[in-house]
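Predict structure. Input: Transposase, 509 residues.
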Amino acid sequence: MKTEVLRAYRFTLAPSPAQEQKLLRWCGNARLAFNYALAAKKQAHEQWRAQVDELVAGGMPEAQARKQTKVPIPSKPAVQKAFNAERGDTRADVEGVCPWWHEVNTYVFQSAFIDADRAWKNWLDSFAGKRAGRRVGYPRFKKRGRARDSFRLHHDVKKPGIRLATHRRLRLGSFGEVRLHDSGKRLFRQIDRGEAVVQSVTVSRGGHRWYASVLCKVTTDVPDHPTRRQAERGKVGVDLGVKVLAALSKPLPTSGAVKVSGGGLLVDNPRPLRAAAQRLVKAQRALSRTQKGSARREKAQRRVGRLHHQVAVRRDAALHQVTKALATRFAVVAVENLNVAGMTRSARGSVEAPGRRVRQKAGLNRAILDSAPGELRRQLAYKTSWYGSQLAVLDRWWPSSKTCSNCGWQHPSLTLNDRTFHCTTCGLTMDRDLNAALNIERHTETPNVASDTGETKNARRASISLPGLRAEKQDATKREDADPTGPAPPRRSNPPTLPPQRHEQAKLF
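Output follows.
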C-alpha cells in the first residue's frame, strides 16, 4: 500500500575548514535567536508574575488573581517583528542585536524562534499535566560550549534550495555545497524518481563530526501484514538485560551483523561505555587539570567530547542492528514494559535516611544505561511498523523472571545474583534470562487490531477507559488493587493465583 511518510536521511558531512567555521557561525546565530525569543517570553512571564503578586498582596486569592491577570506571551510572529526592528545592519552602519543577519540564511533565525515556542509550550503542558513523560523544566538559555551546535533550514519545495547536487555533495540554501562523507545515492535516486521531496535539513555537530539530517516526504510501500518468512517464525520474546543485551525465546537467524551466542538465543552486549572507560578516565583527568578559559582546556574538552561521541555512535550501531534483525525476521516482537527511570534511580538516600551500597547501585545504573533498553524499545516501535511486524508489550508488573516457563511456579526469593532459574515443582533448570524470554513470549497475546489504531490516551500514555482484564492494558496507574470481580493479582513473592488465560493478554503498540 503506497503511503506518504516523513523520513529523515542522516548523512555525515566532510566540510572544509572554512565551511566548518561558517557552520559554527550559523549555529551561534541559531543560539542567539533562540535566546532572544526566550528572553522576550521570560520578560512577559515576569510581568505576569509581578501583577499576580500585586493583586495577592492587595487581598485577592491567588487563584482568582491568576485568572484575572492577562499578559500575552509573544510567539514567533511577534518575536520576529521585534527582532527585525532591533537587529541593525552592518551594511548601513546601524548597530543592533544582530547586525550581520544578512550573512545568514533567514531560516536559521525562524527555526530558532519556532524551537523557543515549542520549548515554552512543552514546559506549560508538562506543568499542567498535559504532556507525557517526565517533568519538563523551565526553559533555559543556550550557552556556547554546553548547548548542542545545530540549526535547521527550510525551503520552497517548488524551488528547492536544499538538494543533492551529486551523490556525494549536499547543497544547503545560501550556504553552498558541502561534501558528504558517505554516499547519498539512495536518496538521490528516490528524488529523481519523484518518490521523495525534501522538506528541511537539520545540521548538527556531534564530537568532531558534522551531520545533516534531511527530512523528506517519501511515498513508499508500508506493509500491513508480515511476510511469509516472518509468519513462519511467528512471535519472539525478548528479555532485555545487562549481562547480555537481549535474551530471545527463539534463535535469531542473522547474517553476521548481530553477535549472538547460546545457539542464537543470546545477543551479546558490546558495552561501549565500559570499553572506553580507561580512555575517558584519562581524558577527563587531563581536563580537570587545565585552567578555565585556556586553549589547552578547549583541546581537552574536544577530546572528551569526541570519546563520548564515539561511545554513542557504537551504541546506536549495535541497537540498530539488533532492532532491525528482530523487526524483519519475526511477525511479533514481545518485550517488557520496563521502568528505566525507576531502575536507574540513585540509592544515595537522604541525610536522615542514607542509602546502602550506593557505589554498587551506581555501577548497576551505569551498566543499565550503557545498554539503553529504552532506546531499543523506541526503535522497535517504529521499525515494526516499517517492516510489517508488530510490537507487543507485556504488563510491567508481571513477574516474568520469577515465574517458571514450564509449570508456572513462582520463585519466592529470586535475586539479581541468581543467574540460573531452578524450579522446585517441575525441576526445570535454565538460564534466568532465557526463562524470562519464554514467559514474555507465551504470556503476550496479539489482538486482531492494527498497530496504529490511535487509541485515546491521557497525559501519561494510559488508556482513559478501564475495561477488561488486568493484563490487557499497561496503564501508568498503580496496579496493587485487586480485581473486585475475581481473585487477587499475583505478587512478586507469591505463586500466581490467576488462571493462565488472564496472563496471556498484553497491550499491543
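The two ends are 21 Å apart (CA to CA).
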